[in-house]
What does this fold into?
Amino acid sequence: MSITISMAPLHGVTNRVFRNAFVRHFRGFDYAMAPFILSIPAPRSRNAHFKDLFPEYNTRLPLVPQILSNDAVAFAQTASALAELGYAEVNWNLGCPYPMVTGKRRGSGLLPYPESIERFLAEACALSPLPVSIKLRLGLVDAREIMAIMPVLEAFPLKRIIIHPRIASQLYDGSIDLDAFAGAASLSGREVGYNGDIRDVSTWRSLAARFPKVNEWMIGRGAISDPFLPGRIKGASLPDDPKVALEAFHEDLYFGYRETLAGQKHALDKMKEIWSYLGSSFSSDGYGQKEIRKAFSFEAYEKAVRAVFSEERWVAGTNVETTAG
Ligand SMILES: Cc1cc2nc3c(=O)[nH]c(=O)nc-3n(C[C@H](O)[C@H](O)[C@H](O)COP(=O)(O)O)c2cc1C
It folds into this structure.
């Protein structure tokens, strides 16, 4: 069975600069899901709102835009704008766990209310010019919430359903609940995609063995820590000198941010966030990485990065076999 591997949306991280740099240097992803945008009731400030999604910036990897909304009409209007940009699918975010969002019954704030989800989907699926898909968690406060949601989803022509097996109060940490994922997937007549904590090939392999019906695997942090991971899951081997590709990727990303963001701080903050993931794949969190965290000028940052690339070894995935997916 050939599998689909998708890039998870990470707001503030997997933007167009990151996506484009990533695909220039690494393989494995079949498409990316874009970080959420809010639904807009009217086409105001259209340029700023949709900029990350403009097709001219997204030519390298198929992209599925995502909307965070609890207003089906506004969702459908936003989907119409996305259809005009040429998109073929729109994803509804039912997973965002932050209280600012959930308090307004958006993201995972809707999960305890299957009847609201049903009402939303009835209207959104009827009005949206694009097929709708869903990315959701197990629940807001209880992993059993999803058991009331899955039967509701059966009535709608959803393009895909991707489940991150955590509840909202866990944010992105704590154990994932694979039994709850299995229970939810068993209630769906369609294939369900899996997302969460795929950090290395052997983790993916054991998930794939446990869930043989899952065809789509969505990976976020694991692929930022180890950008070779999606390709390795699909059977590619690690290059002899992984740091060559990583340095070239880093250069693209860094100069991409320098070109698109105003001021040193913004570009450096973005790069520091990348290093908060990527750094764990190097042999030590020593001098170079500390200096990256402390860098407040491009010069200091570049010096620290040179130290990491010259002094530290790439250790991620160096002792696992690859698997042909
Ligand atoms: C910083 C950050 C931003 C995120 N932004 C989004 C988002 O915009 N939309 C979404 O559906 N999920 C978002 N997520 C959740 C991820 O898509 C994913 O579900 C989660 O990180 C678990 O997958 P992973 O373990 O492979 O990273 C975000 C996660 C993080 C850590």
Remarks:
- Residues 242-260 form the longest helix (19 residues).
- Residues 8-13, 35-36, 66, 93, 95, 135, 164, 172, 195-198, 219-222 surround flavin mononucleotide (CB under 6 Å).
- The beta strands are 4-7, 31-38, 63-68, 90-94, 132-139, 161-167, 193-195, 216-219.
- The mean pLDDT is 95.
